[in-house]
Fold Phosphoserine phosphatase.
Amino acid sequence: MKTIILHSQDLTIAQLVSQQVGADIQKKRTHFRFTTDKIIDLNALRERFKLDFNIVPESFSASQIGLLVSDMDSTLINIECIDEIADFANLKPQVAGITERAMQGELDFDSSLVERVALLKGLDVSVLEQVYTQRLQINPGGKALINFLHERNIKSAVVSGGFTYFTDRLAQDIGLDYSRANVLAVDNARLAGVTQGAIINAQAKADFINELCQKHALDVSQVIAVGDGANDLAMMKVAGLSVAYHAKPIVAEQADIAINVGGLDKIMDLFDE
């Protein structure tokens, strides 16, 4: 039997879904569920109702989850930080184009990061503060999700191919337990156009999950990984449950769960069994 989640509280739509899938409505606190042994076309449901639908993987056990690890740019937050930094050098279109191709999986992440960071050379470090305070926002439902994890004693982390200036500050501001990202080199209060240390790429993100699991005596099956771009796929494959959040097609089609309409709080629906 399959359990289908309708990530909505609209009873009228739930009734229509019930008719379409031939299953009774199960009312939950924030959503509806349906249990059926029929073959379900999720994409057809998503297209018809313009809402999020997912099938809960049989292996998923909400009570066993001990860690959620999220990407930062365009996942936990609304922007790609490197693109916004580049805007201060009047290079946003050029850098954003490279970022988009990297996230679609069309470019090697490491070389694309080196290329983009080099274009930032000479910018005053004060632009980082401006990006954080003036342009960066938590995506809808993000704070509610983190608070929910705290209530359940589930550890939380952000890992990014972006920069520690943003991940560390974000972790402090919204209460994440861990953060990891690339370190921007600075020379005389200006960006040096390079990063320091190993690049946090797709494999490094996956390694971060394994590291945190070892630290907290967790199995990877107890981890939820959330991402949107091609460089999130490795960590999403490692984790017990992968969530694609407003993701690139290459990511959405490979994830266990896809949130394309609602906010990050829709992840909480998985726990309301």
